[in-house]
Amino acid sequence: WLPWTISETRRQGPKRFVKVEGGGNAGNALTCAARLGLKPKLISKVADDSHGFAILKELEADGVDTSFIVVSKGGSSTFSYVLVDNQTKTRTSIYTPGDPPMMPDDLSQSTLLSAFDGARLVYFDGMFPETALFVAQEAARNNIPILVEAESLREGLDELLKLADFVTCSAKFPQAWTQAPSIPSALVSMLLRLPNINFVVVTLGEGGCLMLERSANEDSDIEERDVESFLEFLYKGKDDSLAIPTCIPSAVTKFRANGIGTICGRFYIGTAEKIPDSELIDTTGAGDAFIGAIMYAICANMVPEKMLPLAAQVAAAKCRALGARTGLPRRTDPHVVSFLH
User: Cβ(108)–Cβ(36) under 8 Å?
Assistant: First the structure.
């Protein structure tokens, strides 16, 4: 389901600023990807109410193909109310789910095959696991790479992750899912447990991101390092004086996580843009913007050293405006144009 979102920010006492726009992880991420130059198709569901029609109109205006969105006769579209505190920069979301929910019966195989025509990547935000798994299985049968967002532990997410080629996750997810003692060891565990995954990225807010990419090179001469001490060493190369996003790559290494195992790959530290406090308006949807840029980068065959700074810069641009979509940059935006080449 795609939510219709009201974002409200309060500054200087009782004065409020209100923005009404479309929302939802997938809707936001695909809007971002469309503004960067992709031609995304969205499989989702809305009701035939005023919110539903407004959601469709906004997506279409941004270049998102809505022809595969199911419109329910009756029911209600998902709705969220997001309160943004301008002083603390924190958010509170009041979520009202849509009804009836999207089910596999809403989609025929011919509809999916039509949606997959020309597709280079399929992205799942982890919602509605039964339907998501149905679509993912069909995508896998058609050899279309799959990107899965792992925001939190959810029913059915394990089965979806098994089909993934790429994973992006929140800061808390890797350890919650693997029970590993740290994020670096958790990423090693994820790649060992999910052998189809090419890379996993964990977002760390203003701390940037951390990425582990699998390497096919299993040369016996490759040095083996303890993952914890190695990441401590790699982080020492981070230049905290730089305001713009950067990427610090490692060489191909065998990373050992005690009690978990060893994986051959490369770590990448991605830094975030340092946004002046006066310019930081709202972090709602920053993760969705990051994922939208990751989708663009995968489809453009970008190397991680370019992908991670682009995603960080796009997320930072979003944070300079109220709501999840207002600040999403277009590919001609001076904030991001240099990161696209």
Answer: no
Spatial separation of the C-alpha atoms in residues 83 and 106, rounded to whole Å: 33
Closest C-alpha to 86, from 20, 165, 11: 11
Q: 87 CB contacts (<8 Å, ≥6 apart)?
A: 11
Confirm whether pTM is higher than 0.90. yes
In Å, how far are 2, 69, 122, 330 from 340, measured between CA atoms? 29, 30, 21, 11
Please give the Cα distance from 203 to 199 (Å, whole number): 13
Residue 42's identity, in one-letter code, is: L
Domain 103-339 sits in CATH at 3.40.1190.20
Buried/exposed 123-151: b ≥16 CB within 10 Å, e otherwise = bbbbbbbebbbbbbebbbeeeebbbbbbb
Domain-by-domain residue ranges, the chain?
A: 103-339
Tokens representing residue 187 in the block: 């990423």
* CA 102 to centroid of chain Cα atoms: 21
Taking only the tens place, the pLDDT of each residue in 92-134 is 888 888 888 899 999 998 999 999 999 999 999 988 889 999 9
